[in-house]
Amino acid sequence: MRRTLAVVNQKGGSGKTTTTVNLAAALGERGRKVLVVDLDPQASASSWLGIKDGGRGLLDVLTGNGNLADLVHNGNIYANGNVYAVPSSSWLVGAEKALKVGAETILRRKLTSLPDSWDYVLLDCPPSLGVLTVNALAAAQGLLVPVEAHVMALQGLAALLKTVDVVKERLNRSLKVSGILACRVDSRTRHALDVVDRLREHFGDLVFKTIIRENIRVAEAYSFAQPITEYDPRSAGAEDYRALAVEVMRQEKKL
């Protein structure tokens, strides 16, 4: 059974793209075939996966009759060749205007037509709760929420979860929070550890046991269009994302 996970947080800089790309690579290392769908007009996931210009293909598919499968790239070959992508570009900015009210389930219909070639579809969402993110929430079975280890991030998380409840009620009753992921955790500071503690206190088992430690090597990996598991396989970042992949895969038994 294919799992579709939306990686969502309306706050910029929370680690959505970093989580999407490096989780995809870590899952790919373990033999899972993963399709990354880049829904962010900034196209950072596409760049990280070695695709320089996604063109207007995704916009045309979402606003017309095209097939999502025709846009799939297998760019930089890593993770045993198991990571593929549907790239984005700045053209996707037009989707917010082109997709009218009632278009919240277009992505779900397009994903349904995909062949059964992938074990996971990861939807990298833009830093807003606009029509693209709502489409992702309507299409996904699970929600993965990266949260920066800063107290201000907790307020945004509460607002996001309220939106999720509305989408679940109106568009996608099967939507569940697969996990909240504490990112950019600087274990040298008491503040970051306090935020992680507060997350666990408020959300319990919804918070992944894995935390993503602050690691400059992850930022460097983006510059080389490689996931951290390839760029520095022995780094703390690679270790963290591999641990996250194991947790995500364990959830398969509960489906």
Describe this structure in words.
- The chain contains eleven helices and six strands.
- A six-stranded parallel beta sheet has the order 3-2-4-1-5-6, with helices on both faces.
- It is globular and about 50 Å long.
- 49% of the residues are buried.
- The protein is α/β, with parallel strands linked by helices and 255 residues long.
- It has helices spanning 16-29, 44-48, 57-63, 95-98, 106-112, 131-139, 151-170, 190-203, 216-223, 228-231, 236-250; strands at residues 3-7, 34-38, 83-86, 120-124, 142-148, 176-183.
- The longest helix has 20 residues, at 151-170.
What order do the helices and strands follow? EHEHHEHHEHEHEHHHH
Give the tally of structural domains: 1
Distance between the ends = 9 Å
- The CATH first-level class comes to Alpha Beta
Record the strand order, biggest sheet.
3-2-4-1-5-6
What's the story with the biggest beta sheet? 6 strands, parallel
Enumerate how many helices there are, as a single number.
Answer: 11
Unreliable spans are none
The class by helix and strand makeup works out as alpha/beta
By CATH, the architecture is named 3-Layer(aba) Sandwich
Name the CATH superfamily assignment: P-loop containing nucleotide triphosphate hydrolases
In percent, how helical is the residue content? 40-55%
- Tally of extended strands? 6
**Percent of residues in beta strands?**
5-15%
Rg result: 17 Å
**Average predicted local confidence, pLDDT:** 91
Enter the CATH topology name: Rossmann fold
